[in-house]
Amino acid sequence: MPKILLIEDDISFCKLLEKFLIKKEYEVIVAFSAAEARLAIKNQSFDLILTDLRLPDSDGIGLMAEFKASNPETPVILMTGYSDVNTAVKAIKNGAADYISKPFNPDEVLLVITNALQTPQTEAPAKEKKPARKPNNTSENEFVKGISIASKKLLDHIQLVSPTDMSVLIIGESGTGKEIIAKSIHEQSNRKNNNFIAVDCGAIPKELAASEFFGHLKGSFTGAISDKMGYFEAANGGTLFLDEIGNLSYENQIQLLRALQERKIKPVGSNKEINVDIRIITATNEDLREAVKNGDFREDLYHRINEFSIQSPSLTDRGEDLMVFADYFLEKANQQLNKEIIGFAPEVVQIFQNYSWPGNLRELQNCVKRATLLSRGDFIESDVLPAEFFQIQKQQTATGNFSLSDNEKETIIHALSKAQNNKSEAAKMLKITRKTLYNKLKQYNID
Q1: Dmax over Cα atoms in the chain, in whole Å?
Q2: Is the pTM of the predicted complex or chain greater than 0.85?
Q3: What is the pLDDT of residues 293-325, one digit of tens each?
Q4: DSSP state letters, 232-280
């Protein structure tokens, strides 16, 4: 039975986590302070240490360094509600096995602990570690190769642009896996041994953008209680991924453009410029060209980030890949939930194929994980699917089933006839986008 030292000053949260871990057959020793933890380490040996970053009598990173000095083989996982790149970089460089941000769900902490216990702890160089803004298990960022034409085109573009240093703009709907595409480009590039830093531009307040991107010095503004490393410096030598870049304010766009042009940054409150060598990959779910026309996005910045563009296809545009991804997510859910579900019942496959998946891959992953948790037999049956799947079925029963899974050309012609040749209405009936419908019309030579 693996023995864990849990260090957490929030007593109620600590006791809750302790009970959960004991239920999962771990032996748990609790410490509510750094002093108690030092005493426990002195008198006992542990298979893993799980510690909060902010303790009343110590800093979690400093405490971890003490533990690693005396017990280098013991993995340490840091927990924090103060997730930023600076602490992530420090944690990894000081030897953390992993880093998990509060609030986290039980499955997540179990997965992190399992991986840490299975991974040998070595004295690898710090640059081989890959901290990110939101730490993820490797499998979370695995690129799955689809079999559809859209997927094959995507893979070709990734393989083509990855070895270069070109700036890449990834365009696609929410939930289509734009960050996974960016991570795949990084891992196939010459920068793969350096950091990949992912940033959600929509989550950065306008007033703090300069500090987040370029860092700041202690005392440079109210609330700057310590020096902070920015995203650019954290990604130095590696790749900086800016998700939903269209959400940046015009002022922040100017600051970003200057940094990209000069490859130099100046932390807030500092007079010293820092040279940075980074590759920029950006993503958006909106039409930046339209934003440029409307004056909401700088044209010079658009051309700077769009040396090469990649379309991240929606799940509707890659229908042949649906069950490929469903099987992949099922395998992942089995691992995370300690289940052994074999596959999907035929009825569920049919329901999946008839559903429009507005949330794309993210919705599919959540659906499969929920269904895996609820399933008690060997296969996922329809009774564990969310209610919206059956609402869609009722609508299809009332208006006619326009599934593209069988007799595709005839189905499209029937939908166009039903919609009196209104392509927008026909696309809605078919549960596909107008763009996909136009492609199908061209493919089948339908006037």
Answers
A1: 80
A2: no
A3: 999 999 999 999 999 999 999 998 888 899 889
A4: HHHTTTSEEEEETGGGS-HHHHHHHHHHHHH-EE--BT----EE---EE
